[in-house]
Amino acid sequence: MADGTQSIGRAIQILKAFDDENPTRDLTQLVEVTGLNKTTVHRILNALEQEGLIERTDDNGYCLGSELIAMGGRAARANNLREASYSHIRALSRITGETTTLEIIRRENNITFTLVIDEVLGKHLVGINQYIGTKLPIHATSTGKAILAYLPDDAINDLQTPELRQYTVATVTSYENLNAELRKIRSTGYSLVMGELEEGLVAIGAPVFNHNAEPVAAISLVGPSVRINREKAVALSADVMSTAASISYAIGYREPETV
User: Fold this and answer.
1) Considering the entire predicted model, what is its pTM?
2) 119, 134, 142, 220: least CB-packed within 10 angstroms?
3) Which of 161, 150, 147, 172 is nearest to 112 (CA)?
């Protein structure tokens, strides 16, 4: 690897060391997490700090800088899918009163997950916040299942995580049961997850298709089980599917013509 490319890769590695669980880190922690030597990490941190991508904390640690916030905003505004979807998920949230999200699939270090790229909060005081940028397990989310259900079999095999981690007693932990769920989703057009990621969390998902009829994203309607029981979730699924269909149409998807 060329020196310039290697330096960029190391800088990105350091930036990715900060996450929701570790918003701040000190030099020693960054050395441990990245596996880079102390001198290299310190040099890259100084360069990132000069560009506003890293900032010092009061206790002489480090956190992501304000320039990254600005860059993230520009990236979000440039995302055509997000722009095309926002008015639709906002309308769905207003109609139902519940939180809605737009999510895509990403893969890092052989782990596939759903990534929240937009969210509209519901009107209730007791609600669910997923937060933009949150990474969620693909097998325990309505969005992950909604996308998986419409991918080719070989793609599904490639996307599946090494193991299906159990988050609650309701989490699907076998591929046999997961595949059975995916077949059901293909027949109904929506996915329903009740307490699989977190107890009391209910989510209804539907896929978003691009102009090539590929599932490129999914939306979800999320709320607590005290407001959304199974019967209500099934009723709300029509609104979720209709919203997903409107987004799909907005980004170029057209229903195949029937003979």
Assistant:
1) 0.73
2) 134
3) 161
State the chain's mean pLDDT as an integer: 89
Low-confidence ranges of the chain (pLDDT < 50): 1, 259
CA-CA distance, 200 to 39, in Å (whole number)? 47
Structure tokens belonging to residue 94: 């207003």
What DSSP designation does 138 have? G
Burial class (CB within 10 angstroms; exposed 0-12, middle 13-18, buried 19+) of 27: middle
d(CA 218, CA 202): 16
CA atoms within 13 A on the CB side of 123: 8
CA distance 71 to 189: 36
pLDDT in tens, 97-122: 999 999 999 888 778 899 999 999 98
Q: Is the dihedral of CA 35, 38, 41, 44 positive or negative?
A: negative
Burial (CB count within 10 angstroms: exposed 0-12, middle 13-18, buried 19+), residue 167: middle
In sign, the C-alpha dihedral spanning 79, 84, 104, 96 is positive
Amino acid at 17: A
